[in-house]
# Entry
Amino acid sequence: EVLTEDPETAFSTLANREDLNLEEGSIYHCLYQFTRNEKLTETNKLLCDVCTQRHYGPKKNIKSEKYIYTNAKKQMLISLVPPVLTLHLKRFQQAGFNLRKVNRHIKFPEVIDLAPFCTVKCKNVAEGNTKVLYSLYGVVEHSGTMRSGHYTAYAKMRSMNNHLSDPVLRGQSPQAEPVKGQWFHISDTHVQAVSASKVLSSQAYLLFYERLL
# Structure
C-alpha cells in the first residue's frame, strides 16, 4: 500500500536516533543499521506512477518501456509495536561459495527502547510518549558450526500477569525496570539457575522481549 505522507514527518521517529549509544557489536547498532535511511539512485530508482502519468497521461496509454523512474529515499520503521518483540540475529555470512557462521558476541540489554526505530505516528503508542520499552525474558543460543551444533535456551521465570497488555492498550506510560524473575539455562533435559550476567554474555541467536507497562 502506497501512502502519501508529509515530507517533514515521513522519516521522523518517536525518539532522536542520534542520541543512541551506537557501540559497534550491540543490538542498538544492528537495529540502527537495519532501519537506516537509504538513497535509491541509478539502477535502484523507484518507479513513479505519478511522474509517469503526469508526463504520458492515463496509465492505460503507457507502454512499459516509458515508465519514469526517480531518485527516492527509503527507510523501514516500526508502525505498530508488538506486545512481544522477537529479534532474529543473522549468524552467517557468505564466504565465496560457502556460508560461514558468525560467532561474534552481540551486546544486548535487559531493557530495550524501540522508540528510535518507530515512526512518529506509531499506531499503538500514546501521543507524547518518547519511550517504547521492552524487557528481556528469553534467549536462544546456538553452539557449533553451520553444518552441526546444539541449541540451548535461557528463560526468565516471573510472576504471571493475566492483564499484562491492559495498561499498554490504554496508552499508559511504560516503566523503565526489567520484569523481576529468576533466569534458567535449559539444555535438553538439564535445567540450571543462572545469573542475569550469564545470560547477557551469551551468543544470542534469538532474543525475546515483552512490552513493559
Observations:
- The chain has a mean pLDDT of 83.
- Residues 94 and 100 are 6 Å apart (CA to CA).
- The first strand starts at residue 38 and ends at 40.
- The domain at 78-160+178-212 is CATH 3.90.70.10 (Cathepsin B; Chain A).
